[in-house]
């Protein structure tokens, strides 16, 4: 079986989407993120921007092979906001993404069912408004070798069309290369069998 070595994410932040239901306003946005640390500043920024907002609910998913996620209802009834938003992240099958839905209460209660529908629809509209891009999962290999091995290592890198991420030339040489995840084993083996070359997965 072919190992899955691509994942989908969003190319750029979405425009702000407004969804209205019974005078409540739901402002939805999607952001590309690479770590959980980026979530809080974005949410704080939205609270400042919409100081009349009652709730800034969100969900995020991170990771390419191993995925982690979090859903936050921000004071809405349990699972009526964060999970419906997360459900849309799953249904679009994207990762490294944060979706926020900021609600300004319009005076009429929507009930839990109404809220679930509203948060789900707003999140869906935000995802429909962005470009979804496919990226390749890359692994990094660290090669250590002496100068006499330089030629054959470089030749292999060129033949295999591998990307060099960094190089350090001291007493010995250290190269970091980036390899498409599905080809890692094969490339690892190639360098592992070379005399005088030490290879490890980072």
In words, what does this structure look like?
By secondary structure, the chain is of the alpha+beta class. The chain has five helices and eleven strands. The chain has a five-stranded antiparallel beta sheet, sandwiched between helices. Helix 2 (82-91) packs parallel to helix 3. The two termini are 24 Å apart. 29% of the residues are buried. The mean pLDDT is 93.
Q: Based on the structure, what is the oligomeric state of the protein chains?
A: single chain
Q: Mind summarizing the main beta sheet?
A: 5 strands, antiparallel
**Secondary-structure element order, N to C:** EEEHEEHEHEEHEEHE
Helical amount among residues, as a percent range?
Answer: 25-40%
Global Rg: 23 Å
- Provide the number of structural domains: 2
**CATH architecture classification of the largest domain:** 2-Layer Sandwich
Based on CA inertia axes, which overall geometry fits?
A: elongated
Number of distinct helices: 5
The strand line-up of the biggest sheet is 2-3-6-4-5
CATH superfamily of the largest domain: Impact, N-terminal domain
Q: Count all strands and give the number.
A: 11
Structural class: alpha+beta
Top-tier CATH class of the largest domain: Alpha Beta
The CATH topology of the largest domain corresponds to: Ribosomal Protein S5, domain 2
| End-to-end CA span | 24 Å
Mean pLDDT: 93
